[in-house]
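ok so i was messing around last nite and threw this chain in just to see what happens. nothing serious, just curious
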Amino acid sequence: MKKVHISLKDYSYDVLIEKGLLSNISDYIDISREIVIISDDNIPKEYIELIISKLNKPLTFFVPQGEQSKSMETAYSLLNKLVENKVTRSVLIIALGGGVIGDLAGFVSSVYMRGVDYIQIPTTLLSQIDSSVGGKVGINADNMKNAIGSFKQPKLVLIDPNTLHTLEKRQISSGIAEMIKYGVIASKQLFTDLLTKDIFKDIEHYIYQCVTIKKDVVVEDEFDYGLRQLLNFGHTIGHALEQYSNYNLLHGEAVSIGMVLMSKEKPYYKKLIEVLNKYNLPTSYEYDKEAIYSYIVTDKKASKHNLNIIIADELGKGLIKTIKTIQIKEKL
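result:
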């Protein structure tokens, strides 16, 4: 088993990574606790049935798969269900699924009775290497992704790479986009491995590498005021593209295009295109520049006149640059 310890001032926890871990889930969770599982209606039944059997058949709620479930309506519905079922403040909420479920269940746990415990069990590559770690939880507003949320660190993150066996290839590629991001901003070796090796022969190792990179950044800047913004490489344009496409673009696909647009004229540009092509990730998309810009001006990293963008002049060395908001149009 691989373990990454996230050591924060007020909340510390472990990320455990091991194939087959879900079969032994009761070794890591106190099954005498009141437990509620939040998942989506497309999670493979084998995971639900396995976990429920190991945890004494906890209360389980399902929401529709997809970004549309990261809404105030869905969160409010879940909160009311918790109340209706007389769920107490001592509950442990389990977020079982991809990034949408992690964000949604984490948000619900952060506001139910002013905060209850939750753990992350991410089942997609993207959520395993990125969104399940760091405590960002939230839902979308009508015209802004992740506009409503908070910081709520999980008590534990359990990653079983075997869940990737049931994942669609497009979802795998979406997760790889975030791996590529980590390579560009923090690890030239990771980027090179993604380009030249079959990473799936040792996927645990690469999940561990990505989680470790994120840990180092989160520990330094838990609340996203400085260094943590590096993790948003490709995301400012990417989030805008997600919304513009009405979320027909997966998160990693939108970030892929965002990385391309932020890397024009960089020395690694051709290698970036090559690695994105290797994993069937898009490198372009038809869009209206003014529409994309209208989304970007509401980005969380934008102030009234300025915008923090993430660039890398060379592989493995990301940096934060403040520009006039209008200047982002040059990248589009």
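not much to say yet. The chain is about 40% helix and 20% strand.
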